[in-house]
Amino acid sequence: MRKLSQSTLLLLAGALTLAGCGRSVGDEANAAAPSPSADQTQQPSASPSAEPSKSPVEITFYYPVNVGGPLTKVIDGMAADFTAKHPDIRVKPVYTGNYGDNTVKVQAGIQAKQPPDVAVMMSTELYSLLDMDAILPLDDLIAKDADFNASDFYEAFLEDTRTEGKTYSVPFQRSTILLYYNKDLFKAAGLDPEKPPQTWDELVEDAKKLNRDGHQGLEIPGNDDSYWMFQMFARQAASDPKANIMSDDGKKAMFDTPENVGALQFWIDLSRKHKAMPEGIIDWGTVPTDFIAGKTAMMVHTSGNLTNVKNNAKFDFGVAFPPANKQFGSPTGGGNLYIFKGTSLEKQAAAWTFVQYMTAPEQAALFSSSSGYVGVRKSAYDTEAMKAYTSGFPQALVARDQLAYAFRELSTHNHGKVSSALTNQIQAALSGQTDAATALKLAQQEAEQALAPFNK
Amino acid sequence: MRTGWNERVGRNAFGWGLVLPSLLFLGLFTYYPMFRAARLSLFELNLATPKPRFVGFGNFAALLKDPVFLKVFVNNVWYAAGTVPLAMALAFAMALFADKAIKGRTFARVAFFYPNMIPMIAVANIWLFLYTPHFGLLARLASWVSGQNTSLLGGPHTVLGAMIAMAVWKEAGYFMIFYLAALQQIPKDLYEAASADGASAWTALGRITIPLTMPTTLFVAVIAMTNAFKLVDHLWIMTKGGPNHASSLLLYHIYETSFQFFDQGMAAAMTVAMVALLLLISALQVFGWDRSIHYE
């Protein structure tokens, strides 16, 4: 009797384990790779010999959302519309968190040999993805596709889709840096609200005048990806209209040039010398909050905040190009659509059809007007939806017009290490731990070390 | 003899059989990954070296020369030195209060414990607001004390202290629960005897309460110490380890190395170093201290 109960207990324990195992494995398979066969197992009535030619191609689409607002609904809606128009393709959109989480999930997929078919990732991930041998060059697909008009995309956005003669992505959710200013506070300080500062000198002058009545004149965020703001100052300070802080092939960093030192020095001087801005490192996230609350009269921030400011600011605000020194300039930012290797040709073709659809003029217009991101192609601005949006909100056009002065965001091999080397040293300089020249010299050394294996 | 042998096998097999299911999962999801990480720590594997290359203890040697790792390690030591004693002392004081307070006892307990109910991410968001320059309560306090506008999270000298204050607030309530349980275990007649002998409340605290809660103190110290290395969620929300690594902690740096720099060999080496360190600390605490604190 005792023996029997013992073995029953063991059997029960074993059975429970197996049951637990079975379910978890099944769930995983469902979540990770929703294939037509997985659907069929849930419907035992379906005939086991389904013809693959008739079942739709299913592709997974990973996307991050980095700005406030119900953007997931917009993207899921676009994917649903696509599926409705292309019954032979079924898109499964997967919202993956912010850009960082998204990269981790895609990376996990690549290692498990189950990458998504298509994903929105930072334009700066290009070299990392190439080094992982994870993404597909799109040249053949573009060549075969008569509808895809590459020259309709803004050149500034195309720069970071290409390297060494090949194209690897299509611009999707893109931004630039803008100067936002509070017209009411301009009036209160005796400044012309229709004349935002155009040059560095005017910026300093206006910010000093605006620094009164308990609010700041200007705020520029110094944490998160500080290198992005630094790129803006560096281009404005450069005499070469094509100057950037890295080489086009992503193998060399040019951080510590005298012009760049001058650019970082100006950033530091804004607070320490001119007292036009609070000292130390200003938080990326609190800058728009401060601006909306009227705690700062001007801010330099991503165009991705246009919608946020538009919806929440209780005052009349203007946007302008960030002021120039030797020239205007802003790096572009944001994400592109990539198609992944390691899937069937059929899926890759379906993924291309989807990419094409998502970046077509109507969709680009819809996405831009509902998110505040810059429309990625010229014809998007000719659509009715976009005309309605921009006539009611002309500020959105400033971000587009600035594309003439926009250029590629810092993107290199070993991007994580190179960009954080620069970001950390910029922070050290802004917080007064080192001077501009030393900071950039150290960043240069660290970047060269990280890039050394790629220059062999 | 023979039956005895059989019986022993039978009993052992039954025991193993019961342990087996959980052992299987532990092995699959804990020990095997640990072994894999330890193995990976001997290889170079990063974006420049997509195929793993055996380097022996090369990763560990590189760690000792890596200024960022050393900085982050020292940060973590300060963070632990700041949070562990403070959180424990506060927990003990709160437990004494929550044990004694007659009116509002439940309220006191709930109020003390509630920070622990909130997930770290939410805590980080609340404190981020408290530290926000111009608006935040604590930021205003700091500005008032220092006489100038202060960004606590933006300053390399203040950011770690700001994190420690938050961690103490969050952790103390959790440790209080253990102390509260320990206090209720102490026989009341000890206190009665002490007061009959004319001992003051302070003497009773020093001679009865503190010695008799020592096993709990040891337990809490181990938990607090490991938590100081384990709880890093707030860094994503508040500082991302900045400015210039001033607030970065070991586990965060491991994540950064693995998932932002894709330097998996180095990340594995750091993981091994951290696990070894934590094992060492808890072993010292448990085996070194354990003997002198139990009263029967």
Q: Would you mind describing this structure in some detail?
A:
The complex is a heterodimer of chains A (456) and B (296). Chain A is an alpha/beta fold. Chain A folds into 2 domains: 57-175 and 333-407, Periplasmic binding protein-like II (D-Maltodextrin-Binding Protein, domain 2, 3-Layer(aba) Sandwich); 177-331 and 414-455, D-Maltodextrin-Binding Protein, domain 2, CATH 3.40.190.10. Chain A is built from 19 helices and 13 strands. Chain A has helices at residues 2-32, 36-42, 71-85, 99-111, 126-131, 139-144, 155-158, 183-188, 200-210, 226-237, 258-272, 286-292, 306-312, 345-358, 361-371, 384-392, 395-401, 415-430, 436-451, and strands at 57-63, 89-95, 118-122, 162-163, 166-167, 169-175, 177-182, 216-219, 296-302, 317-320, 330-331, 333-339, 406-407. In chain A, the strands form 4 sheets. Chain A has a 5-stranded mixed β-sheet with strand order 2-1-3-12-6. A 4-stranded mixed β-sheet of chain A has the order 8-9-7-10. In chain A, helix 18 (415-430) runs antiparallel to helix 19 (436-451). Chain A is globular, with a radius of gyration of 25 Å. The relative contact order of chain A is 0.15. Chain B has 2 domains: 2-40, no CATH class; 60-292, MetI-like fold, CATH 1.10.3720.10. Chain B contains 13 helices and 2 strands; from the N terminus they run H-E-E-H-H-H-H-H-H-H-H-H-H-H-H. A two-stranded antiparallel ribbon of chain B has the order 1-2. In chain B, helix 10 packs antiparallel against helix 13 (264-289). The longest helix of chain B has 39 residues, at 2-40. The chains are: A alpha/beta (456), B mainly alpha (296). The interface between A and B is large, with 45 and 35 residues.
End-to-end separation of chain A in angstroms reads 74 Å
Structural class category of chain B: mainly alpha
Helix and strand string of chain B, N-terminal first? HEEHHHHHHHHHHHH
| Envelope shape of chain B | flat
Name the CATH superfamily assignment of the largest domain in chain A.
Periplasmic binding protein-like II
| Chain pair sharing the greatest interface | A-B, 45 and 35 residues
Number of domains of chain A: 2
> What's the count of strands of chain B?
2
Cα Rg of chain A: 25 Å
Number of domains of chain B: 2
Helix content of chain A: 40-55%
Oligomer: heterodimer
